[in-house]
Amino acid sequence: MINELNDEQLERYGRHILLDEIGYEGQLTLANKRVAIVGLGGLGSPVALYMASAGIGELTLIDFDSVELSNLQRQLIHNEQRIGVNKAISAKQSISILNQETRVNTITDKLDDSKLEEVIIHHDLILDCTDNFDSRYQLNRLCYQHKTPLVSGAAIRWEGQISTYDFSKKEQPCYQCLFPRKINTPSNESCTQSGVVAPLLGIIGSMQAIEAIKCLLNLPTLNGKLTIIDGLTMQIRQFNLIKDPNCPTCNNK
Hints:
Largest sheet: 8 strands, mixed
Oligomer: single chain
CATH superfamily: NAD(P)-binding Rossmann-like Domain
Number of strands: 8
CATH topology: Rossmann fold
CATH architecture: 3-Layer(aba) Sandwich
Strand content: 15-25%
């Protein structure tokens, strides 16, 4: 528990402290928060860097995959020298160069429900930076069960989307309300098969980082809303989400 910011922290985070919405107390709050990032690829790269640079006290990085040459088009937290290295470990190395004050844990295994629950229980917020529906449904279900806020992003081809699911608030829709799970339907289309324009991941990941900071500080977020960005036309659309009374994850029947 950090009770006050030291002189170096006051200088480092001075531009945050100048903001009325953050201030000294808000920055101190961020310094005492624990955040888990699931997936250290195209979305997780900017998310992890901005979470560390923003002064989040502790990060847990979760990824069982290793860095490949094809990742470097968009996964900017890694580099050529780390090809073959686990992505969580590679990301930790980059964060240590950026901000040594941030405590970083790494998990390099694929987590089943019980192990993922342990992570969720011990963190204030989860960032979903995965690239497949199976992981998104799993995170959504477990975060809902433990009322842990979830910031979810996705990007493929030229289109990205982002939403925040603050399950601490009553009667809020969840990810499965927005994307009902269909049985016997392929659910793991990713940029590996369809491609993605590199900077789009940076845009969506940066927006996830903003949403995470706002959620941790109890500022207004995209809770109950979905934002979609078309990188080809540069059109941004936003929709209100409706809770599905028949959702198998979050209905209270």
